[in-house]
Amino acid sequence: MSLEKVREQVLRVVEKNLSETEEGVMLNIRIESDFDENYITIEGGELIFRTRESDENKYNATLIGFLSRELKIPSSKIDIVYGVRGGFKRLLIKDIDAEDLSRRLLKIIRLI
User: Fold this and answer.
1) Rounded to 10 degrees, what is the CA torsion of 93, 97, 98, 104?
2) Dist. CA 102–CA 112, nearest whole Å
3) How many domains does the chain have?
């Protein structure tokens, strides 16, 4: 499979997990723990944040810190609007459009 086809498939998954609102973009993501490092990947059509954090009470802060650092978005612009206690999260990322967020996510998603 060519690199361009892989990029198109990844972009489709990213776009499926984003929805634009008046305030910014909603991002759907699932958290899995006990990995060697923090990263975002794709599995079964979902965006997954894999974290080394094993304390469930720190998942949200770890996710927001990671997204803020990697996407270069202030953490004050990232809110969890659904799934504060669960493994599935819906985040509102303010003051950004879906196209810009998609482009930034494409740069940080790990496929291997």
Assistant:
1) -80
2) 19
3) 1
What's the pTM value of the predicted model, to 2 decimals? 0.93
Per residue in 43-93, pLDDT (tens digit) is 999 999 999 998 888 999 999 999 999 999 999 999 999 999 989 999 999
With a CB cutoff of 8 Å and minimum separation 6, the contacts of 15 are 98, 102
Which pLDDT does position 10 carry in this prediction?
A: 93
First to last CA, the chain: 15
Q: For residue 102, what is the domain's CATH number?
A: 3.30.1200.10
Query: What is the span of the domain harbouring residue 10?
Result: 3-108
